[in-house]
């Protein structure tokens, strides 16, 4: 991260409530970070000035100026509280690529964006833009849920030290470093989570054999427990994380992570993401899509070192 953190806040021009701005201000007050409020918009009916002439250009300019004035209104109370805030509105498409381009231009340390949590369904509504940013945003992506953080915020770092999802070896260290830094700057606490699934391992072993054989299930379970626990403990020891803040569980990641975040009243889960061809190739540690949209807390996504976004 740069010496002074730069926070890019993606503002939804159709929304009246902006938890992402509140989260960015909270982070900036603890880190003296620079905030930029950003709106990117596009109207296909006036996208081609060759077809619509000067009137289209005037409409585009008026739209961008209206967004810029709205951003200035949102920035005023932040500046009055002593924060450094810039604004930019631009005409660009598609939205996710526009955000990635802006983040790259500004060398943003954090890209903070709202998501929407549906309290009746007890799940978040992740947009196509959210998923595209998870895949392709090089900076740390912070997807915000509409609830304030606790006085002593709790961060859960989800790791996969055995790299069962083909993660680069340094990604877990980046995940923990990010979570530990945030916990330290925001006067919170850090927990580390890892899950492994004996049943899935047995199924994979059986499927890979031409002739199924009887597996020593108890021995396999004991061996996996020892292997995964040792790997997580070694990782945490390098980062000075005490055993009582380390959670290694056997079973499906989805329910175990959801249960832990609820027990801890976690404010954010920090995890890693890799980009592959298509959504089905998106790996986030041991997690899957149905974990992400059911988390009640914020989601912070970290990319491997040297990650390069691919723009359309």
Percent range for β-strand residues: 15-25%
Q: Which CATH class of the largest domain applies here?
A: Alpha Beta
Distance between the termini: 26 Å
Shape: elongated
Any idea how many domains? 2
Mean pLDDT score, rounded? 86
Query: Rg, please?
Result: 22 Å
* Unreliable stretches: 277-283
Structural class: alpha/beta
Q: What is the share of helical residues?
A: 40-55%
Major β-sheet, in short?
A: 10 strands, mixed
What is the CATH topology descriptor of the largest domain?
Rossmann fold
Please tell me the CATH architecture of the largest domain by its name. 3-Layer(aba) Sandwich
Order of helices and strands: EHEHEHEEEHEEHEHHEHEHE
* Strand element count: 12
Task: Report the total helices.
Answer: 9
Strand order of the largest sheet: 3-2-1-4-7-12-11-8-9-10
What would your notes on this structure say?
The two termini are 26 Å apart. This protein has two domains: 148 residues, Rossmann fold (3-Layer(aba) Sandwich), CATH 3.40.50; 146 residues, 3-Layer(aba) Sandwich (Rossmann fold), CATH 3.40.50. 37% of the residues are buried. The strands form two sheets. A ten-stranded mixed β-sheet has the order 3-2-1-4-7-12-11-8-9-10, sandwiched between helices. Helix content is 41%, strand content 21%. With 312 residues, it is an alpha/beta fold. About 2% of the residues have low confidence. The protein is built from nine helices and twelve strands.
Task: Lay out the secondary structure.
Elements: E1 6-10, H1 19-31, E2 34-41, H2 49-80, E3 84-91, H3 95-106, E4 110-114, E5 116-118, E6 123-125, H4 128-136, E7 140-144, E8 154-158, H5 171-185, E9 189-196, H6 198-207, H7 217-238, E10 246-250, H8 253-264, E11 268-272, H9 289-292, E12 298-302
Parallel strand pairs: 1-2, 1-4, 2-3, 4-7, 8-9, 8-11, 9-10, 11-12
Antiparallel strand pairs: 5-6, 7-12
Helix pairs in contact: 3-4
């Amino acid at each position: 991260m740069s010496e002074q953190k730069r926070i890019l806040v993606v503002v939804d021009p159709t929304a009246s409530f902006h938890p992402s701005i509140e989260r960015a201000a909270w982070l900036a007050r603890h880190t003296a970070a620079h905030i930029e409020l950003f709106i990117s918009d596009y109207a296909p009916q006036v996208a081609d000035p060759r077809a619509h002439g000067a009137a289209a250009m005037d409409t585009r300019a008026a739209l961008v100026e209206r967004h810029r004035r709205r951003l200035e209104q949102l920035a005023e109370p932040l500046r009055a509280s002593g924060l450094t805030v810039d604004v930019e509105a631009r005409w660009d498409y598609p939205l996710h690529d526009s955000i990635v381009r802006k983040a790259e231009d500004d060398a943003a340390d954090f890209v903070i964006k709202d998501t929407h949590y549906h309290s009746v369904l007890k799940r978040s509504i992740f947009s196509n833009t959210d998923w595209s940013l998870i895949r392709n945003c090089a900076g740390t992506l912070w997807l915000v849920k509409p609830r304030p953080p606790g006085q002593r915020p709790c961060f859960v770092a989800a790791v996969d030290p055995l790299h069962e999802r083909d993660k680069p070896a340094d990604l877990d260290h980046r995940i923990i470093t990010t979570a530990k830094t945030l916990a330290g700057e925001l006067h919170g606490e850090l927990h580390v989570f890892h899950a492994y699934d004996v049943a899935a391992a047995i199924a994979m072993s059986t499927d890979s054999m031409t002739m199924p054989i009887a597996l020593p299930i108890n021995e396999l379970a004991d061996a996996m427990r020892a292997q995964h626990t040792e790997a997580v403990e070694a990782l945490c020891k390098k980062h000075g994380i005490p055993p009582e803040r380390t959670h290694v569980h056997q079973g499906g990641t989805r329910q175990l992570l959801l249960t832990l975040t609820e027990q801890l009243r976690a404010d954010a889960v920090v995890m890693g993401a890799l980009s592959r061809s298509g959504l089905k190739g998106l790996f986030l540690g041991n997690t899957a899509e149905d974990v992400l949209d059911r988390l009640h807390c914020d989601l912070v996504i970290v990319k491997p070192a040297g990650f390069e976004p691919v723009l359309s």
